[in-house]
Every structure is written in C-alpha cells, then in structure tokens.
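2024-03-11 09:14:02 DEBUG pipeline.ingest accepted 1 chain
2024-03-11 09:14:02 DEBUG pipeline.ingest length=111
2024-03-11 09:14:03 DEBUG pipeline.predict start
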Amino acid sequence: MLDQRWVFHQDVKPEKAGEGVTRRVLAYSKDLMCVENTFQEGAVGALHHHPHTQITYVVSGEFEFDIDGEKHIVKAGDTMLKMNDVVHGCVCRKAGILLDIFNPMREDFVK
C-alpha cells in the first residue's frame, strides 16, 4: 500500500496490536503514515519509544496518556505531540479510537 492514493477503510483488515487493541495501517508514504488504533476499555498501550515523530488524535473514547512522565486524561478532539524517542503509552478508560500520524513511516508496521 506504499504510496497508494486511495485507501478505503473497508479494505484494510485490522491486525492485533496488543490485548484489546487492533491496528489498521491506512495511507502512507516513506515520509508519512496514518494508523488507526481501536482500543477496548482497559486496554493498555505499553510505555515505549521509537525514532519517529508522532501526533495522536483522539477520535473517540477516553484515555490516560503518559508522555515523558507527564499524565493527562484525553478525549475526542484532543491531540498529542510525541517527538522522536520520547517515552509514551496509554490506558483506555472508555473504549475508543486513536489516529496516529508518524514521520517518517513506521516500517515495522508493514510486512
């Protein structure tokens, strides 16, 4: 799907990305990637870091995010910026969807 102009949600199969979490890799190029993550209530996005800048947009639900040791509750419409190698993770408080944008693309997300 690299450099695919049109990516239809119905054509992208969700992949398990952790207990209670599914991931859909949507449109991407070498420089930019859009990923949808669906969380069940109580699911955890474990603390981690990577060499990509990441912006997360909360589409729905409620999450407690930890970014570099600072914690906040976020809801639909909120966004977070995570610079390269910053430790971050979350706990889903109410089932929801996060949309992640990565620069550059996450090569580890495509096979």
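2024-03-11 09:14:41 DEBUG pipeline.report The mean pLDDT is 97.
2024-03-11 09:14:41 DEBUG pipeline.predict end
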